[in-house]
Design a protein that fits this description.
With 71 residues, the chain is mainly beta. It contains no helices and six strands. Strands 1-3-5 form a three-stranded parallel sheet, with no helix packed on it. Strands 2-4-6 form a three-stranded parallel sheet, with no helix packed on it. The two termini are 19 Å apart. The mean pLDDT is 88.
Length: 71
């Protein structure tokens, strides 16, 4: 999907590997319920310019933002 911003609904606690791979959003806003960003979850997310990560996130797996070249 394409668009300016994507707000994740409250209640989501983790993203699996490749969850957003190749998406076209410019901004992703994570809810305070999120705890972990899985390996490569934002891989190849080339349009991504901003990610709002709440303080509740306790783990960011390796390569979570691999090739997200515009961050």
């Amino acid at each position: 999907e394409a668009g300016k911003a994507y707000h994740i609904k409250f209640g989501v606690q983790t993203f699996a590997a490749g969850a957003f791979e190749g998406c076209k959003y410019e901004e992703v806003v994570l809810p305070r319920s999120i705890r972990q960003l899985g390996k490569c979850c934002f891989e190849n997310f080339n349009g991504l310019r901003k990610v709002v990560i709440p303080k509740e996130v306790t783990k960011v797996d390796g390569y979570a933002f691999m090739n997200a070249v515009n961050l």
